[in-house]
Each structure stands twice: as structure tokens, then as C-alpha cells.
Amino acid sequence: MKRWIPLILFAVLAGFLYVGLYLNPREVPSPFIGKPAPKFVLPVIGQPGTTFSPEQAKGKVWLLNIWAPWCVSCRAEHPFLMQLAQSGISIYGLNWKDKDREAEALLNQKGSPYIVTVDDLDGRVGIDFGVTGTPETFVIDQAGIIRMKHIGPIDEAVWKKKFEPLLDKLEKTT
Amino acid sequence: MIPELGHFALVVALLLALTQGILPLIGAHRGNATLMGVARPAAQGQFVFVAFAFGCLAWSFLNNDFSVENVARNSFSQLPEIYRFTATWGSHEGSLLLWTLILSFWTVAVTVFSRHLPEDMASRVIGVMGLISVGFLAFMLATSNPFLRLIPMPPDGSDLNPLLQDMGMVIHPPMLYMGYVGFSVAFAFAIAALLSGKLDVAWARWSRPWTTVAWMFLTMGTALGSWWAYYELGWGGWWFWDPTENASFMPWLAGTALIHSLAVTEKRGAFKSWTVLLAITAFSLSLLGTFLVRSGVLSSVHAFATDPGRGVFILSFLGVVIGGSLALYAWRAPRLMTGGAFSWFSREALLLGNNVLLLAALGSVLLGTLYPLFMDALGLGKISVGPPYFNAVFIPLISPVLFLTGIGPLARWKQASLPDMVSRLKWAFAVALIVAVILPFTTGGMNLMATLGLFLALWILFTILIGFAERLKNVQGSLMQKLSSLPRGYWGMQIAHAGLAVGVIGATVVSNFQSERDVRMNVGDHVELAGYRFTFQGVKEVPGPNYVAGRGTVEVEKSGSKFVLHPEKRIYNASGMPMTEAGIDYGIFRDVYVSLGEQLENGAWTVKVYHKPFVDWLWGGAFLLALGGALAASDRRYRIALRKAEKATDKLAAKGATA
To answer: Are B24 and B38 in contact (CB under 8 A)?
Structure first.
């Protein structure tokens, strides 16, 4: 019996490794899911004097995309966000810790997928949302409840798999 | 055209590997000399084709052929030539190709140096290595082809990960793979022995030099990785218990246990089945390490959650190789006769203790590395295991190993006397303990961890001296003659053990007595640390080949002598990724280390300054370990055994001719 122990141990290990293949080690469940989105009032970039708060988006399903001009992955997802915006998805941007004040010029040059993008210079609102890095995208429903959080850039595959089914469900509840 | 030739060469190599993996094994089983004769030419041919494929990929990188997807993703037109070459193994696909190349290189080495082995043994060893090669070549061709074209061709590449654009990273992976893959030879010998049922002292003697050489490369590869993390990451740390680091440390621990257990098997004929199991374990952990790093099961850049195809392939391969060999072990091990009884206090018993403790330490590292995965798989939540766990578990397990390192080499085989040992070593013990208790008081007071580390290191060093004195007591001649009369195997062991002591001193002193400050500095500001005065003289923009660097100037002064350090913050053009380059003044007894943090307004920066006493002893110790390994592997008796065997076969041949 003793001589079979190494093989048995390995079989158990292999079982765990197999399950592990289908798990995503980077995906940490967010404690914000199912809770109302944190309240904030922040200035809108490119429109001096205007502010935005989540109250204003109530009544529709929308995405809050946390991004920054210095973030390379955000640039990578930018073209796909443009496509989404064109197909009628409501995306709001939160420009996170943009110390060099580049957001406005960048959006003018590359086009903006956002209905508005707000300026979170000191990153406080980002902290309220539990942001660990950029890009991160929150799905917020008609009642202002956070339904999902995605860490990392969005591409077509991620969109089809994670976002579309949820958005369809949320739209139906109206 | 060149990439297609490379692709084709991989297909040919796979066919040759299949031939090499199947025919010689059948031949050895049936005693068919013709089939066994296929082993060597097939292995050498496979090497030629894999090397050709590797050359094709390197050519594509050097010539900026961005129509190859792998090149487009991992290279850049502005990348300096040396890094364009090393980018060949900078990606998943490329590093697999390097793995396979090194495997076929080791196989060719076996074909050259195995002439003295019985033909069936050599055929089995080469055959088993061929089967491993089949797995890797098939994996590459099926899921990770490095030669895929990208249409349309992008105008430029997206650059090699800046972390890899460094000389340390140029040498680190080949060294590490030489070690990982080198254990495949010991593994193949073990499997061949299980298949043939002939597991004797000669088997251990053949396996030993191969294992030692692989272990030597793994030691250097791991040490280089640690040194790289030290100067490149800008945190001043030298070991983070990161899954990637553990992936190379676990086979190293298993390899260290294997080297010692092989010594017992060769000298005393004991521990046979244990040694075989260790040989399987060491290589299995190398494969597991490759799987963990490559599959993204543990936190890494990209997970296979979206594309588990590759992960499933490697895991199945692991299942066949590791599961298959452990099943073979379970089936065959009872046939292995274990000889040589020994008492509870003897060199065998001490080495067994060393093995058990090393494996326990290995188990604790394995558990800590995979624990987050276990928890996640069982749905018990996401956790991460960090240095507090590893330090708390590893240090108590490895300390007794270090203590035994002092006694083992002085104990007799079979039966040693404890009272005799006590009287031989009591002074070494007492002096090491007293010095280790007193030394920390010279800098700041009692420190138990420092005392423990220093005691163990001094204990090993003193017992090495006693070992030399006792060995030479009855030898005639001058000191030089006496010393040169000792065999290289003995020198190798003592130098490696001394290296261990040196490394322990480095780790102990730097962990307990380093100091650091993290300050905001304007131009002209200064900060004091450990008697050094650092003056910040600003940061200038300097263009690099494929990056723009903010090059800082920090003047360091201590009691009148001055030097200047230049830490850098680089922004890479293609990726926009920031990288730090620490400014380091190396010294035998201390490093002075400066790195730039964030840029603040008006030319001010956050600056980290460190004083790291004895930190270079860590890598000095690793170098001595590797040197010891090289000396031990080149011991005369392996070559004498070889020559004897050759003479015996010559005689047989002569007999055959006259009969």
C-alpha cells in the first residue's frame, strides 16, 4: 500500500490543478456587488462648471469605466468601447488620478466613448469603488445598484461572455 | 520562408523523437541490438532539427520579421540587437522551444558519454528522454507554435516586456532550464532502472554526476533570478516567495535531497527505492514548475480561464509522465533489494534525516504555493499566502538541516559513536554559539534570529575545518601536497557546504540589520542612513535606444570618501511601461542601494535609499554551491569507473574475436 501513496498524492494534486485551470486567480469578488453605487459629485471633463453624479443616470443600465490616460490597457480597450458606444450602450467614464491633465486632449484626439467622463484627480471616488487598478468597469442597473465588476480591458470575447447576458437580463426587468 | 522551414524542422524533430522514444525501448525489452542502435542517431538527429528550428526563430527576431506573430508580440524595431536575440525565449512559445532545445542537448550529451553503459540501459535512458521530448514538441505544434504568421503584418512590434530587457534575464532562463531539464537525465536513469529491474550501485554512480551538474545549473539559475529581482525590481528584496520563485526552488530542494540520497545508494547500496522516488520527484517538480509558470493557474499575466486548451494539454502530459512513472514505481519498487543495515547514529541515518527534513521543507513550500488554488477550487474563497507563512514554516524546518550539515560529513558509515562525536565537536559548538550570541550585541542588542543564523553558519564552517584537519592528520607531505591529495568529490562537498554557510550569513545579516528610508527629496536635499549621507542632485532626461530614462544623480558620502549613484526611471516607448533601475554600489560587506520612486512637483522625487550589509554573500554562497557541484561532478572516480568499464568491454570484444 505504502508504495502507492506518491501516486495517490499526485492524483489529488492533478485534480486540483485541473479545477484550477478553469478559475481565474485575478478575479477577486467585489464586496460592492448588489450594493448601491457609492455617491459622488465630480466635475465633468471638457465642460467647465458642470458636474455629474450617479443620480443623473438613474433609470437606465449603464457602465462606469474607470480609466486613465497613462494606462496602456485602457488605450487597448478604447476602440472596443467606441464600438459599444456606437451600438447604444451608455458608458460613463471616471478619469482616475490624471495628474498630467491629459484626458481632455486625448479624448478630443481619439474620440470619446463616454456620455460624460468625470475627473477624479485625487482618486477618492476610485477608493470608494474599491478600484485596484485601471481599467475596471462596473455595471450599474436602473436603481443604481452595482451588478458586476470587471477587472482588466474589455474585448469582444469578454463582452459576449460576461456583459451581454447580464445586460440582456437587466434590460428585461424594466 | 524561414519561419516555415523552422516549423517544418519541428515536425521532423517530432517524428525523430517518436522514433527515439519507441524503437529503443522495444529493442531493450526484446534484446534486439538493431532497434537499440536507433537510439543514438535518432537523438542526435532530433537535436539538429530542434536547433535548426531555434535558429529560424532567432533569425526572425534578429531580422524584425513582424509577420511572425511571436516576433510582433515580443520584439520592437528599436530593441537593441542582443535583446532581439534573447526575445527568442521571451515568450511562452519561445521558452518552450528553448526547453526542448536544452532537452535534446542533454540527450545528445547522454549519447556521447554513455558509451560505457550497457547497451540496454543506454537505450532505455535515451528512449525515455525521447518520450519527454515528444510531449513537448507535440505541445508546441498543437497549441503553441512559435512560427505562426500574422496577417496583415503590423508595422512594428509591441516590444519585449521591459522586465526582460536586462543581462541577468538574458542568462537566467537558459541556466534555469539547464537545471530543470538536466533532472530529466536522473529521471530517465531511474525509469530505465525500474523498467529493467537492475538497480545497483553502478546505476547510482552513473546518475550522480548528471544529477550534480543539473543541480549546479539550477543553483546558478535560481541565484541569478534572485539577483535580478534585487537590482531590477527596485524594492531591494532578494526573495519574495513568489510562485515563480518557488517553482524553481522546489526542484532545487528535491535535487539537493537526491544528491545526498544518491551518495548513500552509491556508497552503501541503501535507500534504493527512496532514491528512485526522489529522482522522479525532482523532475516532476521541474515539470510542475513549468506548468505553474506557463499555465497561469497561479496569479500571472494571463490566465487560461478563457483558453484552457494549453493548460489541459500540459496537465495531461504531466498526468502521463508523473502519473505513469509513479505507477511504474509502485509496481516495480518492491523488487528493489535494499542492502546495507545501519544504526540510528551513522552517516546513513544523518543523511536520511537531512532528506526527510528537506522534503518536509519542500512540502511546506508546495503547500504554501498551491494553497490559494486549493482554497479557490474548493470554493472557500480567495486568499494569498505570503512571506510570513513561508518564513514561519521554512526556517524551523531548514535550521536542523543546516545543523546536520555540520555533523554528517564527520560521521562514519554504518555505525558512528555519539560520545566520540560530542568530544570531537564540542569546541566548535561552544565557540560558534558564544560568537553568535555576542555578535548581535555589537550592533543594537540581542537578536535571536540573528544568533540562530550566525550560529548555524559558524557551526558549518568550523566543522568543515575539523573535517579537513582530521582527513589530513595521517597524510605525509607539505600542506599543499596534503590538500591536493584529497579527491575532488571531497573538495566539492566541503566547498558547497561552505557556500551554504556563506549564504546563510548573507541572508541572516541582511534580514536583521538592513536599514532603509523612503523620503521626498528636492534637488540639493540630503538624507542620512547608516553613516552615509545621500545628496540628491536631480533627475535629467536621457534617451535610451527604446526608452526614455529619467536619470537621477545621488552623491553618497561617508567619512570623507565619495561616490555617485545613478538610479533610473525608464519609460519604454512601445509599451509606455515604467521601469526602475536601481543605482547600487556593491561591496563585500555592504551594498548601498538607491532607487527612484514617483516624480513630485518642482523636480522633487520620492527616493528610496537602502543600506544592505552582507547582501552579496547570498550570491557568493550560491556561487560556491555551484562551484562545489562542478568539482564533485568532475571527480576522478567517475572517469576511472568509466575507463574500467571500457577495458572490460574491450576484453569482451577481444574474447569474442578470438572465440
So the answer is: yes
Closest listed residue to residue B28, CA positions, set B128, B135, B133, B134: B128
Can you tell me the distance from the alpha carbon of B566 to that of B550, in angstroms, rounded to the nearest whole number? 10
Beginning with the edge strand found earlier in the chain, give each strand of the sheet holding A117-120 in spatial order.
Answer: A117-120, A91-96, A62-67, A136-140, A146-151
A74-96 pLDDT, tens per residue? 888 888 999 999 988 999 999 98
pLDDT at B340 over 70: no
Q: How confident is the model at residue B657 (pLDDT cuts 50, 70, 90)?
A: very low
Pick from B589, B590, B593, B592: which is nearest to B581 by CA?
B593
Angle between helices B119-143 and B2-30 (to 10 degrees): 150
Strand duo A91-96 + A117-120: pairing:
parallel
Q: Rounding to the nearest 10 degrees, give the CA dihedral for residues A155, A156, A158, A161.
A: 170
B641 has pLDDT over 90:
no
Cα B300 to the center of its chain, rounded Å? 20
> Which residues in chain B (370-409) have CB-CB distances under 8 A to chain A?
370, 372-374, 376-377, 382
Q: What is the pLDDT of residues B386-410, one digit of tens each?
A: 788 888 899 999 999 999 999 999 9
| Residue with grid cell 527512496, as numbered in its chain | B274
- Rounded to a whole number of angstroms, the CA Rg of chain B reads 27
Amino acid at B41: P
Q: Is A2 on the interface with B (CB under 8 A)?
A: no
Please say whether the beta carbons of B613 and B454 come within 8 A. Answer: no
Nearest by CB to B575, from A14, A72, A158: name it.
Answer: A72
CA angle B471, B472, B476 (to 5 degrees): 140
Asked if B44 and B108 count as a contact pair (C-beta separation under 8 A), the reply is: yes
Which of A35-44, B460-469, B540-549 is the most confident on average? B460-469
Which residues make Cβ contacts (< 8 Å) with residue B188, sequence separation at least 6? B110, B124, B125, B126, B128, B129, B132
* Mean pLDDT for the stretch of residues A63-70: 88
Strand partners, B611: B515, B592
pLDDT in tens, B504-546: 999 999 999 999 898 999 998 999 998 999 999 989 999 988 8
CA distances to B177, B366, B439, B492 from B289, in Å: 11, 10, 39, 28
- Is residue A63 exposed (0-12), middle (13-18) or buried (19+ Cβ within 10 Å)? buried
Q: pTM for the complete prediction?
A: 0.82
Q: Which of residues 60-99 of A touch B (CB under 8 A)?
A: 70, 72
CB-based contact (8 Å) between A17 and chain B?
yes
Q: Of the candidates B281, B295, B334, which has its C-beta nearest A3's C-beta?
A: B334
Q: Tell me how far apart the alpha carbons of residues B88 and B147 are, in angstroms, rounded to a whole number.
A: 11
Task: Please tell me which residue, B170 or B38, carries the higher pLDDT value.
Answer: B38
Does the pLDDT value for residue B300 go beyond 70? Answer: no
The answer to whether residue A1 neighbours chain B at the CB level (below 8 Å) is no
| Helices B324-332, A5-21: inter-axial angle, 10-degree rounding | 170
- The mean pLDDT of B82-90, rounded to a whole number, is 90
Of B76, B191, B204, B92, give the one whose Cα is nearest residue B547: B76
CB B3 within 8 Å of CB B133: no
Average pLDDT over residues B87-109: 92
Smallest Cβ–Cβ distance between A6 and the set B277, B300, B377 belongs to B277
Output the pLDDT for position A11: 92
Which residues lie closer than 8 Å to B205 by C-beta, 6 or more apart? B266, B637, B638, B641
Give A-chain residues touching B318 at CB under 8 angstroms: 14, 17
Domains of chain A: residue spans and CATH: 31-172 (3.40.30.10)
